[in-house]
Amino acid sequence: MSKRILHHPAVPIGETTVSWRSVGQLEDTADFRQWMDREFPQGAAVLASEEESETSRRSFLKLMGASTALAGFGMAACRRPEAYILPYTKAPEWVIPGNATYYASAMPRAHGATPLVVTTFEGRPTKLAPNGLHPDAEGTDAFAQASVLDLYSPSRSRGFLKSGKPVERTKFEAVLATLATDSAAKIGFLFGADDSPTRVRLIKELAAKYSAAKFYQYEALTGDSSSIALGDGVKLVADFSKADRIVSLDCDFAGVDFQGPVTPFFDRRKPEGKFYDSKADAASMNRLYSVEAAFTLTGGMADHRLRVSPSQVTAVAAQIARGLGVKAGVAIVSPELSDPKQVAWVNGLVDDLKENAGKSIVLAGSRQSLALHLLAHAINVELGNIGDGKPLLAVQTDTKGLGNLAALKADIDSKAVETLFVMTPSNPIFDAPTDLQFTDTYAKLKTSIHLGMRTDATAQASTWHIPAAHYLESWSDARTARGTHTVVQPMILPLYNNCISEVELLLALLSNDGKLLNGEGEKGAASPAYAAVRSTLSTLGGEGETAWKKFLRDGFLEGSLYPLVSPAPRGDMSAPIIASPPTKDALEVIFSTDSSIFDGRWIDNGWLQEAPDPISKLTWDNVALVAPLTAKELGIYDQIIQLETQFASRSPDDEAQNRTSPMIQLVVNGQTLEIPILISFGQAENTLVIPLGYGQGFDENDELKRGPKNVDCVGLVGVNRGFDAYPLRTSTTAYFAAGATAKPTGKRYSVALTQEHNAMYGRALAREVSTLDDEVKGSFSAQLANVPKQGNDAHAPPNISLYKQEDRAGKPLINDPIHQWGMSIDLSSCMGCNACLVACQSENNIPIVGKKQVAMGREMHWIRMDRYFAAQKDNTFDDGNPEMVPQPVACVQCESAPCETVCPVNATIHTEDGLNAMAYNRCIGTRYCANNCPYKARRFNYFDYNKRNPLITHNLYKGPFGVKQVGEAPHLQKNPNVTVRMRGVMEKCTYCVQRLQEAVIRQKRGQKQEALVAGKPSTEMTVNILTLRIPVDSVKTACQDACPAGAITFGNLLDEEKSVVVRSKRIDRNYDLLNYIGTRPRTSYLARVKNPNPKMPDAKFIGKATIHMV
Amino acid sequence: MANIFPRWSNLLPFKIAVCAGTVGAGVALAFTYYATPKTLNVGYQPSQPIPFSHKIHVDQLGLDCRYCHSFVDVSGVSNVPTGSTCWNCHQHVQRDSPKLAPLHKSMDVTYPGYDGKPIEWVRVHKAPDYVYFNHSAHVNRGISCQSCHGDVNKMEVVYQAQPLSMGWCLDCHRAPEKNLRPLEEVYNFGYDAETYISNNPQLGVKTTEELGLKLKEQFMVKPKETCAACHR
Fold first, then answer.
1. A813 shares contact with chain B (CB less than 8 Å)
2. Element (H or E) spanning A929, and its range?
């Protein structure tokens, strides 16, 4: 019997939306259809080949036979091995073995610290969550979530280096002692762009001690246009709760270009209100206009998006300024916009801004040109958007007076600085603009001292390298975006004795004898860094023991905001010269900030490397991205999308694990780079986007034979990864460079893309409505009412489940009267940023699998961040500008779960409280369940990823002879409440069942408390449901906790209206994924709402991105 | 040609098959019976670095379980006492007993061999792998230490009294009334249900079974039988 051919439901007649995830799907390649029809592509589920699989099936059987026979001879198994329990000798305060302890801390960052609550188990930090108590709390992003892994990174620097060679600590201490006594030393300090009150205080003391001391700050990808436009150390902080209209001029404020807490922005993307407690009201929503070159997370959220190359963003801003009649300050002489469509777009925007003067925000990308910043500021001033109580606050930070990298170079060249302390988290030898020739300048220094967590290029080039302590290991403090003074507490002593924090190093310099004290400090005395942080607090108004305790407990000092300033628009700047738009022979190259490794500092973080880029869905590498039309013009489109050939049912690419991308030769600024290229939708024509930070080191296993080169700069995770675009940049073209040419080279490079993995059948997966009346779809309320009736759900009859919901006695199977868990995911506020994905990874002990395994579709992430593009066939405004809809999909916990019925060993079963549970120790790995899962939410451990290092070539195929995970530390990050799965086991999301159990058990303890309080014998008390039910919305899943957008709500469905999740499930936007197949999922989705401006020329093409997958 | 095989050998293959079958079945039966926690683990009694006697401390001196296992009602794991807990008393009592040498080594700064390292107690009770047993969920709901750990108060050296196998867990999860106690009696090793009933006639129960059922209903004890209750 031949295999039944599935006919995918057709797109409804009259549907104008075309939707896709990948180019392959758009072009319907054979490769894509494989991902659709099969769980894994052909060949991924078998051993690759005899020589590649070091142990073939046959030799495996031989080995197994022999070892079984031998097992009988060994008598070792007869004795029970002794296990030991080691209690503390003196118990630390608050630590209860087995229970987590939580501390407030913060992650210092250039744009303002991220307030955190750190989960520790017996002193090991394992998980980060946002500090909900903090006034500037705003969730976490993927970088913050993944930063805990850096602490345990096997490639972490742990010893002193002198000129790249290991050296004793005492040698450096001697140098430091000499420096500490030489107050005339020509000494310089290069800090990161983060702001720390203790550091500010120490800088003053250093300036007093060292008469010639100079201070600088540098981070590769934080532009300085803003502080030039507004004043030294002045920055704008957005308060999105007050903003009705937001214009982003190439500013990815929701992604990598933070401009202030974003949670209020997302709260206002929900027409029913943050807690879903009012009727859907379009007027309560904000409206986002975005002008950008390539899709960013912010652009994906935009109601109106205009794609122009970065040089032309300034022209658009000038047009807006003209439309608003801005006169003050900047002289506008640039050519007017010529494209009538763009002019109409800007006119619509200008009218909207005029109507919302004082309630709007115009944000300029922080790496954009000074001209754009001047324009944006002039517009904001004209509209009256800046000031106390207004949506934009101009604040004076404490970074005033710090020089930049160019100033540092000048000072080194003029010998004003002879000894330099490099403490920036960036890597100036690697990432400084080429025209500064910083490497040569750096070599002129008498002594260069680098403090860093990685042995990167700067560490290797410095005279001395000091291993830095992680922020979870050191005492410090930081300022959030609005300036709230926030504590950075150590959770653990430095894992390696020689690791030193920035504050400790500065304090050693300030001491009389230059003694370097780190960690605990001297016996009997408080550690110097602790004392320094504490004394900073008292100078800022938190005096006394109580204030200090409160500071540690809450994590912040109340009311410690930056002072407000009101910078006037500057008029002394020369008029901006706007280059002509790019052409195919003079492309514009955008050096973008990478969503995985930022500026390159996280290249050794496996979680971030493996998290698919939110837009391109690429893992482990960077590539150049190009719009489809430009690719066709450059003649490379056909090489990227290899269409089905006449004689082969497979694409010439062969299997997915062998997927490659063509390489181009890019020439810009006189430099050449060969880099693979991929299609990116919605990107401005004639632009290339290249994420920065990759290509830091290569060994002999590199695919393109680039190594060995700089191999000491990176660890096992970062080696052989991607292509370095930093050499293409100069100071003036740090963000984008014009006049580039690209031509195909004929070479190809393997890419691990996840966008086609786990493609789902069916229809109307992600749904979208518009607040605007539509000719066909009706008014906003009519569209809302129609949300659950999209696709097959419109006409499929109600599904009667074949699987009984009752047991033989007629009792319902899901029968817990106390808790029934449920979740909803609001697509209206989800931007697709990966914070949930990484949070899940850190909470649930999910391993990384490496590039090769990802290419085979074996990534283990429990949450898959689907990203759909959808365009209107009749889009006459801009048909190359689709809408982007992200949709996180994890196990949806079906009540009638198809996976459960096919498991031969009952390893996946339903719990009474509505979870689809996994008993890992029962699973024998038949993978039937994954085959039967319509949501493709199950992941299989093909190898022992947790135990065997997947990053070493062929290592996984060596079985027990393979190299184990390197380093002594990685297991310390593991959550002790979750099983670490082994090879051959299926796994998936279980709504963080460990957190649910913990909450339920904690609530049970309450019964005892009640008995104690009542003072009556326990036999006289009656326990009811409410005693045992956890407080409303008191438990959060890891993904929900991490989400900066508040897109995920979770709770007990039996809490009825009191619970946010129940309210969210009762609104019109609620729908079940693949409802018509009758699985009755517990996770439901809320349709995305777009709020277009009816006066805009593209308004009628917006809000229709309901994804009909064919 | 003479027959090489005598006549009786005709039945030999059959006999061999029967014998082998019997032996095989015997091995299988023996394995399923003996290779279980019930026979392998019950009675496991390793010697400890300090021959700590629960009999003396609990039975004779009357220490409460929670003096040493202080977090049993707030944490999933019941902690083994810290060195300082022992030292509280033993810096005064029986200070010079040679049996306490390991304690001195870890706590007594004046002791010649002092190293401050914790005492390595040998683990006696271990739930099987992949099980997340939670003590607080049990002791706060009327299940006594005694139900799983046996008469620890009578043990000179602690041994494992119960199999701690999944079947054994489920026996109680299916019929918790057999082990339920009033919350006040959870840590009382001298508890006797019949005495309790006769001392508390106001409860209106006559048999121990009735008491268990009454407590089960009153406390709303509905032990989970689903996998995710213990495995996750």
1. no
2. helix A928-932
Distance CA A285, CA A272 (A): 9
* Domain-wise residue ranges, chain B: 11-39, 52-80+124-229, 81-120
Tokens 């039910």 map to which residue? A1029
Return the CATH number at A270. Answer: 3.40.228.10
Q: Among A79, A89, A95, A1027, pick the best mutation site for testing chain B contact (most B Cβ within 10 A).
A: A89
In this model, does residue B65 exceed pLDDT 60? yes
Q: How many domains does chain A have?
A: 3
Kindly report the CA angle at A605 between A601 and A609, in degrees rounded to 5? 100
- Put simply, the answer to whether B219 touches A1007 (Cβ < 8 Å) is yes
Across A552-566, A1007-1021, A1037-1051, B117-131, least confident range = A1007-1021
Of A85, A910, A915, the CB nearest to B121: A85
Task: Quickly list H helices, A306-368.
Answer: 310-324, 340-355
From first CA to last CA, the distance across chain B in angstroms is: 72
**What does DSSP say about strands A84-85 and A447-452: parallel, antiparallel, or unpaired?**
unpaired
B117/A84 CB distance under 8 A: no
- SS3 string, A628-666, reads HHHHHHHCCHHHHCCCCCCCCCCCCCCCHHHCEEEEEEE
Residues 6+ apart with CB under 8 A from A687: A293, A294, A309, A310, A582, A587, A588, A589, A590, A626, A627, A630
User: Does residue A997 lie within any of the structural domains?
Assistant: yes
Please tell me whether the overall predicted TM-score, pTM, comes out greater than 0.95 for this model.
no
Contacts of B44 in chain A (CB under 8 A): 80
Q: A672: which strand partners? A: A667
* Domain-embedded: residue A662: yes
| A984 in Cβ contact with A941 (< 8 Å) | yes
Is A313 a domain residue?
yes
Token pair for A202: 């120490």
Residue A416's Cα: distance from chain center in Å? 40
Chain B residues whose beta carbon lies within 8 Å of the beta carbon of residue A1022: 218
Interface of B with A in 54-113 (CB under 8 A): 71, 73-77, 79-84, 106-107
- Tell me whether A546 touches chain B (CB under 8 Å): no
Contacts of B49 (CB under 8 A, 6+ apart): B102, B119, B120, B121, B122
**Is the ipTM value over 0.90, yes or no?**
no
Q: What is the pLDDT of residues A761-796, one digit of tens each?
A: 556 788 888 888 888 888 888 888 888 888 777 777
Look at residues A948, A791, A947 and name the one whose alpha carbon lies nearest to residue A19.
Answer: A791
Residues A422, A190 contacting (CB under 8 angstroms)? yes
What residues make up the domain containing A1026?
A: 993-1036
Answer yes or no: do B136 and A1005 touch at CB < 8 A. Answer: yes
Is there a contact between A129 and A100 (Cβ–Cβ < 8 Å)?
no
- A888 to each of A726, A824, A1102, how far by Cα in Å? 33, 11, 21
Q: Name the domain boundary from A753, A773, A804.
A: A753
The domain that holds A701 is classified in CATH as 2.40.40.20
Phi/psi-derived region of residue A313, left when phi > 0, alpha when psi is between -120 and 50, beta in every other case:
alpha
Q: Which of residues 73-112 of A touch B (CB under 8 A)?
A: 80, 82-91, 96-99
Which 172-231 residues of chain B touch chain A by CB within 8 A?
182-184, 200, 203, 214-215, 218-220, 224, 226-229, 231
**Nearest CA among A188, A193, A194 for reference residue A408:** A188
Asked if residue A540 belongs to a domain, the reply is no
In the numeric block, which tokens belong to residue A785? 């009412």
Last residue of a domain, one of A396, A423, A441: A396
Q: What is the pLDDT of residues A35-90, one digit of tens each?
A: 556 555 544 444 444 444 444 555 556 656 555 555 544 444 556 788 899 998 88
